[in-house]
Each structure stands twice: as structure tokens, then as C-alpha cells.
Amino acid sequence: MPRRKDEPGFSRRSFLKTVGAGGVAAGVFAKAPGVDAQGVNAVGPGPVPVTLNVNGKLLRLEIEPRVTLLDALRMRADLTGNKRGCDRGACGACTMIVDGRTVYACSTLAIDVQGKKIRTVDGLASGATLHPVQQAFCDKDALMCGFCTPGFVMASVGLLEKHPNATPEQIKKGLDGNICRCGTFSRVFEAVASVSGRGARTSAGELDADATPLNEGVQRG
Predict the structure, then answer these.
(1) Closest-CA residue to 171 (of 213, 221, 121, 217)
(2) What is the model's pTM?
(3) By the 8 A CB rule, do 78 and 116 touch?
């Protein structure tokens, strides 16, 4: 029914007029010289200079702000050690260490980690000498297809740097964001336990009992 002239409240037409006027005003202020509506200096969408500290070396790239850390290193810097698995922060194959914290590189923007220390599996070995975690993975046969291995190695390094004498429960928690589709979880745990100095005191049965990761699919600190 038509609204009476003396009836209180907004009509549909009045509401639309008000919303339209508000939108126009916001657009005018947003474009006004010297007015920063959101207090954010936008960059892009085209390539912008980005400097990354990767494995102790400065890496200068020209990339779009939307490029992830994984793509920046694999596609632009030829650092292909860490792999792309799910590409949605769930499998852990792309795990890297940024300022001492393990992160999913497929879900981290390269532009956001400028000024931070980035470590990838490519920089773990010292010449022909493998990192202790890498050597343990070989000794314990903790890999099959090897696709998830770089992520597991980096997650293990991050864990052992925080907990040098990690317990089985700490190992399980530290690796719960990584998936091995080949099912080598028990060997991975044995490898990590051997580096932590607990391999001789921890039975394989104890590790196997808790061998299935929870895989919460979140960045781990």
C-alpha cells in the first residue's frame, strides 16, 4: 500500500537516495587531494621491487604484490627445494622458516616478509655436508616419493631449534601441519627423535602409536 504522508519512517525511495548520496560523498573524499581515506599506501597492481633475505643472501625481485613467497622463490629465483602441494596451506610441503617461525610459503605474500630472515631447504646443507636433520632422514629412510620431504625437514629443523631434546609428544605437535601421502610418518618421527638425542631411548612402537599427524592446516610458530 502507498505510504501516508504523515506516516513516520523512511520510504524505500528515501532509503536509496540516502545510500546513493553517501556513496557519492565517500568517492569525492577518497579522491580529494591529500585525503587518505583508509590510511593505507597502495602498491601495485603491477610489479614492484621486493628485497628478500633468503638463506643469508639478499634477493632482489620485481614481482606483483599478490605473488606468494613460494612462487617468488620457485618461479623467479630458481630455489625449487620446497614444493607446491595443496597450494592452500594444508599439506606443509612448502614449509619454510621465517624469523625462526615455520610458515606455509604458499599462503605467505613475499612482499610481507621483506626485512625478515627466510630459510628454505635449499640453504640447509653446508657444501657437501647435509644438515643433521637431512642426514637423519636418509639414515632412517624417512622418505618415499620425497615430495613432502622438504617441508617435513624444515618443520623438523624449526622444532628442534626450539626443543633440542624434543619428546615424542613435542615431535607429533611440531609436525602436525605436514602430510606424507606415502605414509612414512613413523620413519619421519624416528629421524627427528634421533637428531634430538632421544632416538636410542624411544622405541619405534612408542612413536608408531602416535604416528598419524593431526594436520590442523595452520601456520605454526
Answers:
(1) 213
(2) 0.72
(3) no
How does pLDDT run across 122-135, given as a tens digit for each residue?
999 999 999 999 99
CA distance 48 to 194: 44
- Residue boundaries of the structural domains of the chain: 48-123, 132-209
Q: Which of 130, 145, 141 shows the shortest CA–CA distance to 179? A: 145
Question: How distant, in Å, are the alpha carbons of 7, 186, 199, 210, 220 from that of 203?
Answer: 81, 11, 8, 12, 27
Residue type, 12: R
132-209 CATH fold: DNA polymerase; domain 1 (1.10.150)
Residue ranges in 63-184 assigned as alpha helix (H):
69-71, 132-139, 149-162, 168-174
Q: Which of 75, 54, 53 is closest to 63 using CA atoms?
A: 75
Q: Which pLDDT tens digit goes with each residue over 148-161?
A: 999 999 999 999 99
